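Problem 3 from the worked examples.
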Amino acid sequence: MILGSNPLIQVTPGLMIWTIVCFLAALFVLKRYAFGPIQKLIDDRRGRIRSALEEADEARAEARALLDEHRKLIGRAREEAEEIRSVARNEGEAQLRRVKEEAEVDRQRRLEDTKKQIQAETRRALDEIRAEVAELSLIAAEKVTRGALDDKDQRRLIDQAIGELDFSVLTSSQDA
């Protein structure tokens, strides 16, 4: 086989010109109707991707800022909750002390009232005993003297007898 004998390899100037003209026509048509719109679509898509990336970066930065703010708010809320708990605990302890103090004061007051009542009852009982002793003394003196003494003498004798009685034994046994 001879190299120059193959028709595909042979240089034919007319065919070459027509091939170049067809190529340039096809190139013009492709550039005008295909490459331009395709390039425009690619550029538009590149722009949308770029803007989407920028928006995503902005959204990420905003999300980080919101997260930081949220963490700060949670920290402040925890601090406030701890402060409220501390104040409530302190108020509770103060109220408990106040209630204990009031209960102690009330107990002391009741104890004093009870002591005063006991003393008043003791005095009343002693007065009743004195009156009873005076009555009994009058009756006994009347029986003994059978009317020899007048009322004034009898009263003087009774008061003298009562004055000699030792009532301290009764009060000291009451105090114990």
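Problem 4, a separate protein:
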Amino acid sequence: MKAVYYYELAAVSGCEEARHNLGVIESKRKGNMDRALKHFMISVRNGLFQSLEEVKDLYSKGHATKDDYTTALQLYQTYLDEIKTKQRDEAAAFNERYRYY
């Protein structure tokens, strides 16, 4: 599949959405939950909330462990702590669309 090739190129370059899409392809189309979890964990570390939701879904269906889900939550919290600034908080308080957490 040509899309997978380009997602892989983008993921290696640091595109979280591409990494997430690879995880979706692995889990939904190929049924490879271990590989999907690895993709999702990488994109969670880089702040993609949708991947955190996918890890949660894998956990609820028994494809990920409690430790996996806990690690994903910790990675996402670390990301939020790293990007937290007073200006972001003020923007989030001003308008819901600027909310980053």
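Solution to problem 4. The chain has a mean pLDDT of 93. Residues 11 and 19 are 5 Å apart (CA to CA).
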